[in-house]
Amino acid sequence: xxxxTTRPNPSAQPPFDLAGFLATRTETVNRALDRLLPPPTxxxxxxxxxxxxxxxxxxxxxxxxxxxxxxxxCGGKEPDAMPLACAVECIHTYSLIHDDLPAMDNDDxxxxxxxxHKVFGEGVAVLAGDALLTQAFExxxxxxxxxxYPHQQIILELARASGSLQLIxxxxxxxxGEGKKLSAAELKYIHERKTSALLCCSVRLGGMSANCSxxxxxxxxxxxxxxxxAFQVIDDxxxxxxxxxxxxxxxxxxxxxxxxxxxxxxxxxxxxxxAAQLTGRAFKALKVFRGNAAALxxxxxxxxxxxx
Length: 308
Ligand code: GRG
What we know:
Blueprint: H1 18-36, H2 45-55, H3 62-73, H4 78-99, E1 109-110, E2 113-114, H5 116-120, H6 122-141, H7 151-162, H8 167-177, H9 184-208, H10 214-241, H11 244-247, H12 253-256, H13 262-266, H14 268-285, H15 294-305
Antiparallel strand pairs: 1-2
Helix pairs in contact: 1-4, 2-6, 3-4, 3-9, 3-15, 4-6, 4-9, 6-7, 7-9, 8-9, 9-10, 10-14, 10-15, 14-15
The protein binds geranylgeranyl diphosphate (GRG).
Residues 59-60, 62, 92, 95-96, 98-99, 111, 167-168, 171, 194-195, 232, 235 line the site of geranylgeranyl diphosphate.
């Protein structure tokens, strides 16, 4: 069944070339990451090769894209947002490496390749994750400072989103929920932290890099929160509807691990409706940008309709 979206008046807006946006931004983000990370030849080479192995695999680069799109919506300059887009991608990649470890989800494939610990061993994979997390803060410390958002604010933003009350909290609740029957509210608690927090942080940082107004930051927070929740609902749906080849990671893992997901609690159709409703809430949050958030809108729609 096609998913209906509530994208505001799409025909009234000039079409946004999302494919072009994603292709060009993926390239510029990759180039920036390559510049910002120690080269693979830096000693000890094992750790730098391991960091780069996962970072430059087939990731969708959605968090950097959201960061850059949010900066554009606030009238910012892309080079100012770029280090923050890279910092978020480093944190995201760290979380994937650790999530795949035998002590966590114990997965063999990620981003279309063998997982980090399968190639480099568990010890180096833990350290590669740690190094990427630390790298994110080094990158953020080296970025520009903005009148409304000095470095302290930027570092705090990254630390809060990745800390024990958000990303880590979500992962802990996810681990503790395995094999248990969770309510929809408990599942939402996990999704808010495990997924939405970092997506929300991505758009907020994009806005901050444009020295956005408090009203714009509030709108981006609202947008990021809802897009983040929709993202995880879709992720859960794809886990049961797509192949491992398409996803680049093992499909059907949630069912196997007896994880509570939206499809397992409310069924596939209702899950699709919920994802569309959440995306609708995200679109509404963009009103304040008065038509200047075409990239964010297109990304939200794409994330709802994605197949990987
Ligand atoms: C501290 C030991 C330790 C572990 C922390 C925080 C954490 C491990 C894991 C985070 C949990 C996690 C992986 C959440 C899922 C979020 C999600 C849906 C990720 C997939 O994102 P995509 O589809 O991936 O954007 P790509 O590969 O395309 O970037």
